[in-house]
C-alpha cells in the first residue's frame, strides 16, 4: 500500500480524483486536437502533454474563484482548472466565433477569459510575467486577499521580461507566484544549451525571493510548494519562484518534427514518468481510483471530448466585419 501523501497535505480523496480527472481531460482534449490537425480540420496544436501534473497541481493550490492566472500556451490544465470548458477550448482550436479567447481570431492556446480571471496573453513569450506582476501590485495596493500566478517555459525564463518582472516583484514584495514549467526543450534547443546554471530556481536568490525546483510529474509535490507560496504571499511575505521539471512529450507544435533533434529513446524514457500513469498508479494503490471509477471517468471524458469536438466543428465562424472589433473602444 502506498503512503497517503495527499491526506498529509489536507487533500480529500474527492479532491485528488478531481485533480486526476482534470489532468486526464487536458490530455484527452490535446490528443483529440492532434487527430483533428492531422485530419486537416484544425490548423495548429501546441500541447500540454507531459505538463498536466504541474499545471493542475499548482491550480488546485490556488483559490480558483479569486486568484488571477497569466498562463502560457501549454497551460490547458491551468485554464481547465480555472473554469474554461472543453467546448470553449475546441471553439478556439476550430477558430469559431464563440471562442471566448479570441472570438475566432486564433492563435489557439493564446488563452484569455475575463470571467475566470485568465489574463489575455501575447505571442511574444514571457510578456505575461510583467502583466502578472502588475496584477499582484494592484492586489497589494487594493489590499485584496488574492495572488497572481504566472507560468512560462524554461527557455522563456532567459528573456528580459522575466528579470524585470521578478526583480520588481522582489523589490515590492508582491503576491505573485511564478512557475517555470521546465520541459527540457525550447523548440529544438535542450535546456543545457539555454541555461548557464543548472536550476532556473537558483535565480530566485538574485531577486530576493525563495526558489524551489520540484518534480513536475508529481501533482502533489507541486500542490504543496504552490500552496505554501500562496500562504506566504497572503501573509505579505512576497513572491516565490517555482520550477516544475517534467518533459515535453510531443513535438514543440503540430508544425515541428522533433525527430530532427532528439532520439526516440529519450522520449520513450520520459514517457515512463508520465504523470497521467504515475498519478493513476498512486490513486489505484490507495484504492481511490477503483476499476469502476476509472471506467466512469474515462467514459465521462470521452463524452466531453466528443461533445466539444462536434459542438465546435458545427459552430459558425465569425463575421468578416468582426475582425474590426476590439481594437478601439466602442
Ligand atoms: C519573444 C519571442 N521569441 C521567440 C518566439 C518563438 N518561440 C515560440 S515558443 C518558443 C520556445 C519557448 O520555449 P520554452 O520557454 O522552454 O517553452 P516551451 O515551448 O518549451 O514550453 C519560441 C522560441 C516567441 N514566441 N517570442
Ligand atoms: Mg521548454
What structural keywords apply?
330 residues, alpha/beta, two-stranded antiparallel ribbon, five-stranded parallel beta sheet, 12 helices
Tell me what the structure shows.
This protein is of the alpha/beta class. The protein is 43% helix and 9% strand. It contains 12 helices and 7 strands. The strands form 2 sheets. The protein has a 5-stranded parallel sheet, with helices on both faces. The termini are far apart. The relative contact order is 0.16. The model has no long low-confidence stretch (mean pLDDT 97). The site of thiamine diphosphate has 15 residues, from strand 2 and strand 4.
Summarize the structure.
The protein is of the alpha/beta class and 330 residues long.
